[in-house]
Queue: 2 jobs
Job 1
Amino acid sequence: MGKGRFEAFSDGVLAIIITILVLELKVPEGEDLHALHETLPHFLAYVLSFIYVGIYWNNHHHMLHATTRVSGASLWANLHLLFWLSMVPFVTGWMGEHHHAAVPVAAYGCVMAAASIAYTILQGTLTRQRDHNAALARAIQRDGKGKVSLVLYLSAIPLAFVSTWASIALYVTVALIWLVPDKRIERALAEHHEATVGADSHP
Amino acid sequence: MGKGRFEAFSDGVLAIIITILVLELKVPEGEDLHALHETLPHFLAYVLSFIYVGIYWNNHHHMLHATTRVSGASLWANLHLLFWLSMVPFVTGWMGEHHHAAVPVAAYGCVMAAASIAYTILQGTLTRQRDHNAALARAIQRDGKGKVSLVLYLSAIPLAFVSTWASIALYVTVALIWLVPDKRIERALAEHHEATVGADSHP
Amino acid sequence: MGKGRFEAFSDGVLAIIITILVLELKVPEGEDLHALHETLPHFLAYVLSFIYVGIYWNNHHHMLHATTRVSGASLWANLHLLFWLSMVPFVTGWMGEHHHAAVPVAAYGCVMAAASIAYTILQGTLTRQRDHNAALARAIQRDGKGKVSLVLYLSAIPLAFVSTWASIALYVTVALIWLVPDKRIERALAEHHEATVGADSHP
Amino acid sequence: MGKGRFEAFSDGVLAIIITILVLELKVPEGEDLHALHETLPHFLAYVLSFIYVGIYWNNHHHMLHATTRVSGASLWANLHLLFWLSMVPFVTGWMGEHHHAAVPVAAYGCVMAAASIAYTILQGTLTRQRDHNAALARAIQRDGKGKVSLVLYLSAIPLAFVSTWASIALYVTVALIWLVPDKRIERALAEHHEATVGADSHP
């Protein structure tokens, strides 16, 4: 099976998630700077989640770009990833409202850890079709960043019950780690692209 | 008429339905595990509906993949299917809030039965153009799963007035039946693909 | 300028409008048939608007299919159409809640009349590029249905102040008129398609 | 890297932003013209923001059309632009509710100024790949309109604390400036197109 609709559907869902995130930003009751100030935690939670979903979109984009064939198992692995990402607006809204409370901050980490695991599973189903997706398989041989992220998420969950700020600091750290673009895939793709110029008509 | 925009529009609507489902998950009032516990029925109803819409997307994807031409009647049959699927967030939210009440649980089954019938009608309009969509027609000769699902939905509706849990158990059963991928279409397509490699440039 | 992104953006907006329509369907407070009964006017308003947006999508699809080039003026004419269609969820929600009141029912007609005029303007900007879009220009030589619809909308607006039901009956009539597929464009396209088979690779 | 998914994702997000803008338009409580009258400031704020997002979509469309290659930096510059545009429904809703208050009106200007700067950054990352995107680089040599807009936004922010109406008048002025289509890019593209007819199969 090809990847056109697979990409289109994922893009659609990610675009909607990133946009309905902002629906959690309630229009302030008041009309002065104080009202805006009260929205600040929500706003910061929104910025963080926007960056996270953006990172997922970017990585998803790169991963699919290095893929030529998508199996039925990958369709479900992808829906599984999208399921956890669709929970992001929910936990973002909750954490934005109760950023001093342990459970909402821990819940944010749980969803992020689940999305991270779902991404790894998706990567696995895609690389299993080795003959088709060899470029991808080569690119992610050592998924160091992914492992570090998961460890940080899993640390942030219990840490939230000690200090919510320390926990949130870990989430910010993961986002910063990923904002550095994934050179491995870009490099592998550049090589792949040089080898297949002309054959790769679709972007 | 071709199928590019047909697929794109369906993908768009399904992507939005699957994502606005989560808007029914209200951010909890409290900030402890108890607040999260109260969200649990909503969350489970959300998971079930997410899987249902995912199944419809997967099957729709496979069905259209085996289709080469789309008639005007199919456009309306597709909108009819999307109409019933667009009711899913409504009945999910209602059932999530009142999972002990017969009417909301039965309403969920009504929408699912209507979507199931609408899918069969769409399949019918697509296979009627036999010369174009022969691969699809061969693949779904005996739509056993579809018939079983409809029987289970139609049983779940009156059953909700006896026991809502038994009714919900039937909905879960249908979801599990479909999570097993539809080998028939995949196999028929694989054969078709082998016969037309090169001609089938779009995924 | 080509039409790929033009279609994609229109599809996106129409898909979202058709789906957020359902967000106006509030989950009922109660849990019995009575609660569902109270939702009925909302539901019927939803069905009507769903069909309207579906008709616009179908016609837009056909019109663009018969178009090969899109000017800058058409981009804005299209946004103008999408603007009025984006008002549909608003007036649907209002009419659903106050179907006995003249102003909401008349407001529905105003938005529909504006969308109808916007569609005619868009058709005008597309056919002005005659050499590129000759197939479309031939197909819509006499836009009878469009004119009848506009007259019915404009009659329904003052009629709402006499009888809201008579006004709503006119809206239903227009929907029924359009549900009959537009044979003219389909026929002209079939002829065009036969003349250009092979050249028209994208649907 | 190609631009297909880049455009599709941007279109998706912009389509959703333009459509969820209308969700800020609350269905009026009453059922007479007075209720509609109270919605008027919201409606006008909605019209203004709809035009702004439409302008961004149009310009984004033209800019990408003149682009052949998209770097990793551009992906993030684009997400940065989409971030600020995703704030538009929030500030539109706030300004619509409190159009006499300085802070909401100034906040609208801040988001618009940020989006304007983000657009300039995106333009910069795209033109940096000069050999690929030369047509674009030529087209925007002197981005006069962009600079004027930014100056007007930055003037409108402090002006809101003197007179909100003067500030809003500046926002309307910027919208009018941009509604005049950008002849520069269209002309440069027309030249480019003539030089590459046949090679430029995708719109």
Job 2
Amino acid sequence: MSGTMRQLVSTLISDGTLELSIATVDKPEPADDEVLIRVEAAPINPSDLGAIFGPADMSTAEAVGTPDDPKVVAQVPPDLMPASAPGVNSPRPLGIEGAGIVEQVGTSAAAKTLFGKTVALMGGAMYAEYRMAKADQCLVMPDGTAPAEAASSFVNPLTALGMVETMRREGHTALVHTAAASNLGQMLNKLCSNEGVDVVNIVRRREHVDLLSSIGARYVCASSRDAFAEELVEALRATNATLAFDATGGGNLAGQILAAMETAQIQSGRDVGPYGTTTHKQVYIYGGLDRSPTRLERNYGMAWGVGGWLMPWFLVKIGPEAAQKLREKVAAEIKTTFASAYSKEISLGDVLDPDSIAAFGKKATGEKYLIRPQK
Amino acid sequence: MSGTMRQLVSTLISDGTLELSIATVDKPEPADDEVLIRVEAAPINPSDLGAIFGPADMSTAEAVGTPDDPKVVAQVPPDLMPASAPGVNSPRPLGIEGAGIVEQVGTSAAAKTLFGKTVALMGGAMYAEYRMAKADQCLVMPDGTAPAEAASSFVNPLTALGMVETMRREGHTALVHTAAASNLGQMLNKLCSNEGVDVVNIVRRREHVDLLSSIGARYVCASSRDAFAEELVEALRATNATLAFDATGGGNLAGQILAAMETAQIQSGRDVGPYGTTTHKQVYIYGGLDRSPTRLERNYGMAWGVGGWLMPWFLVKIGPEAAQKLREKVAAEIKTTFASAYSKEISLGDVLDPDSIAAFGKKATGEKYLIRPQK
């Protein structure tokens, strides 16, 4: 088999613009241990947006291509333009994860068994008609799984699993999650409900309380309410949660959670000395929805920690065997616990529409786009 | 043996004052596994001041007793006065650590071997003529050690050792220390020099650079200098330090250190992706000289952590055997690595002098008081 394939790329051009376009490149031939995946579905995750938009100001985006060769350009603020960074003027492929059908295989046994299977892959360059992969990097789905069902097999499922696994490994028994109405947040509630782990969900808006309650979440606190601090302490006392994953990052929220955890520990009867209780309270920041500085009042004793957390680094830390177990759990439960819903399906070309960009660029709760590269 | 003994106490009185006074109490009789220590020397550590002063505003301190029964009272700001907390109106003994001679012993073999020895003890109530202790809690000093030499055997030595031990256990190879001209900071430099561990010392004032350089510190950065950020990066690159112990706590310093560590890692050639380098950078806050909130800009990728650190909790975490090894190292090197210097020696009664209180309450670098309860 030979020929060409279409692939979405983002190019930072030295004149100070960012260009999104569709490149036509050679379709590769698998080596012995490789397979060629016909990509059928790939989601736009919040974590994809950084690579798509780069440092550009997307409010300046305008369509400049032709119907046959659509293009979008946007201006990069001069102070954010790298002088001569590696990568300037080089088209970068996009798309962290996706799924498809194995259409061509190498000569190794591992590659051959994948022929015709639905597989998911995380590794970049998934916004394309085809993607080459090592056989052992593919996550094989159970028979009867459509690629669209398997498109989001890594980022959200492994993040949710990684949070629960971190909780167990670090000796906590319940979790706090912020920005909890997100796709990830809903998935985390399903997972924890299965595993008998309590989750304290923190959301901003009243309608997100209703959304999470409707899927069975038991503890939901709205940070916009006057009684937020008291309600959070109450939920923390009921669950004994001493670990939080915070997607917002900036502002007072991480510190508010630590303070509420300490108050809950004291109300639960823990000994409290001049340095607070000895119960370790931890917040991991895994996103940066609020880009302002993190502000810690330190009014919760000395047994606390705040730090960054990234799912891929966590998988490296626990080692390949433990990570593979988590991946296999995702495949086994891809239609239930780890099912994703999308608000819209679009083609590769549709990504280059300024109106689409404005919509998926908002990272709004409930908005998630699925790219269908074959359409 | 029987009789009475004098003991310094701090009493929070329900009328809204704090009273410091000398209580006369019964001298206790040792049980089988106990020994009675005649306390000869006990330091005033910064960590003692919280217990001595409580919530009182010490600028209002005034002497109100008689020469035979000296007393100091100070006003507690009404909003800091606990309504009916346990401990109100009860005299609290003071003094975290100290040393003395074992004057009377119980019947157990462990107790008997201590008779006449110089021992150090951490456990409170050391600002007193006598202190009862379990035999196995006493740290026995080498023959020929005077109690004054052994008075500071725990707080500073075990904190310095705990920092180095934390560094090793968490996979770092060099240290950053703030407020580094302190007694503790000087001791840490001596210890690390012996152990071949690099320390990056951060101080505020120019004269503290000279002080540390004069005792052989190789890396000293003054945060008051315009070129502080660059000089810190340079020292971090030279040492590859990725762990800091911060005594200040508030403000931007913890974040500045993390940012400088990340810059040093990048300059040293580490791979840097969209989430920064994968090198974990850690700041432990072990004091609160700056009571303002900690402000983290998070401009150093995702491989970072900030948290509280307390020496006694660290000793619990590593377990009794490992902790005992550290204590024995202190005893063996009490006249060299872990020697302390004092700016003034005072009696129990001298502590109740408002001028003394103003002096040792300042926590000034180089000022450290030693209480001599027998004088």
